[in-house]
Amino acid sequence: MAQLWGGRFTKETDRLVYDFNASISFDQKLYQQDIRGSIAHVTMLGKQKILTEKETEDIIRVLNEILADVESGKLEVTSEYEDIHSFVEANLIGRLGDTGKKLHTGRSRNDQVALDMRMYVREEVVKSNTLLKELLETILTIMEDNLHTVMPGFTHLQKAQPITLAHHMGAYFEMFKRDSLRMEDIYRRMNYCPLGSGALAGTTYPLDREYTAELLGFYGPTLNSMDGVSDRDYCIEYLAALSTVMMHLSRFCEEIIIWNSNEYRFVEIDDAYSTGSSIMPQKKNPDIAELVRGKTGRVYGALMSLLTTMKGIPLAYNKDMQEDKELTFDAIDTVNHSLVLFHGMLATMKFCTENMERSASGGFTNATDAADYLVNHGVPFRDAHGIIGRIVLKCIEENKAIDDLTLTELQEFSPAFEQDVFEAISMETCVNKRLTIGAPGAEAMKTVIEKEREWLEKAVTEK
Q: What is the rounded CA–CA span in Å between residue 340 and residue 176?
């Protein structure tokens, strides 16, 4: 068993205890970060004359060799090592001898793992944000292509008022835009370097923490060594943001599942993102949408687990914190895979616009506009509301839409109706007369789309 801490102990750790304590099975994912952090640390030690120039060069050279060998498959990370730190250091010493033992000068595994995890999460935040921006691009394109595609808007899963597909998609654009902004906030808040915090109280070596932070792309060093080794807020914030992403994806997936049903037929999911039934040959199931919806709970679970793990931990480092990795790694993989697959499903999905428009026309979605028509002709709103309610009841009994009735039939309910009512309650009028910013009218949507396009282009070009 390769351990970095054997001097204090007089007998070997029980195998079950060792396995329970070991993290190599999952923290091997951090090998790049561990080696890059070690190179920066050694570079700083050389700059500060804590190591000689020769020692610095030799350690950096061999660390780069180890990195290349792991990435090529020549060197395998195995369970004989307790964690990724002992793997790297043992291989360094094995290749370089006593000089390799100087790698850990002025450093603890506590600030080392804090650095590795922070670097890993920082990179994944950027990846998640990139995937979000790619999804936003597709949503915005759908919006641009469907300014005039009328569909029903719903409340309580009942048809409410006519909107457009562009407007409906715009709601999800706003959701994922907020998700993207959250990623940027997390990055800014977490991008400080804990290396040099030591176990909890810094070190007596004359480290240049600002220089190490600069080498690793951080804004600067963390300002409290105890917090530096024990902070996992950035993981919790990231998991919270990922949970919100999954909530938004799940809501979208639920709508796609409904829209894909035989009763709605608003969309046709591409064959590549559907499956069939082993017994029912007619079935085409929205499995990707259902799986994304289902995996949302998995990501929520990671967030709640880490919150629970951290809630009772006194300062500074405690072994409990080892639990941050598997949870975070799994949640990241789940969300990023969900984003990729959902994006592919959405980008290849066919929108059945005629069915959408027919559904809007047949669901009394213009009832509110009919009431507004009466109000504009002098009828008090409460009376207008009751009149239209009675008209809807008649239409239900006769299986008609409001605009299927003749003017004479409408005037039986109120003499305020005139011939222009039919233009006033047409689907196009109902949508396009809503011109306040954020509403579904075409002119309002054009303004919004222009703003969203400007924001997205700027967001994509920024690092």
A: 14
**Which residues are within 8 A (CB) of 260 and not within 5 positions of it... i.e. 6 or more apart?**
266, 267, 268, 269, 286, 289
Q: Which helix (H) or strand (E) holds 161?
A: strand 158-164
Cα distance between residue 126 and residue 277, in whole Å:
38
Please identify every residue annotated as catalytic. 156, 277
- Using CA atoms, how far apart are residues 96 and 3, in angstroms rounded to an integer? 18
Answer yes or no: are the C-beta atoms of 46 and 132 closer than 8 Å. no
What does the DSSP 8-state code read for residue 323? Answer: G
Alpha carbons 230 and 101: distance in angstroms, whole number: 26
130 and 184 Cβ atoms separated by less than 8 Å: no
Work out the end-to-end distance of the chain between its first and last CA atoms, rounded to an integer number of angstroms: 43
CA–CA separation, 75 vs 244, rounded Å?
39
pTM: 0.91
- Tens of pLDDT along the chain (463 residues)? 455 545 554 455 566 776 666 678 888 999 999 999 999 999 999 999 999 999 999 999 999 999 999 999 999 999 889 999 999 999 999 999 999 999 999 999 999 999 999 999 999 999 999 999 999 999 999 999 999 999 999 999 999 999 999 999 999 999 999 999 999 999 999 999 999 999 999 999 999 999 999 999 999 999 999 999 999 999 999 999 999 999 999 999 999 999 999 999 999 999 999 876 666 756 689 999 999 999 999 999 999 999 999 999 999 999 999 999 999 999 999 999 999 999 999 999 999 999 999 999 888 899 999 999 999 999 999 999 999 999 999 999 999 999 899 999 999 999 999 999 999 999 999 999 999 999 999 999 999 999 999 999 999 987 5
The secondary element (H helix, E strand) that includes residue 443 is helix 442-461
Q: Please list the alpha-helical segments (H only) found in 146-279.
A: 165-190, 209-215, 225-230, 233-259
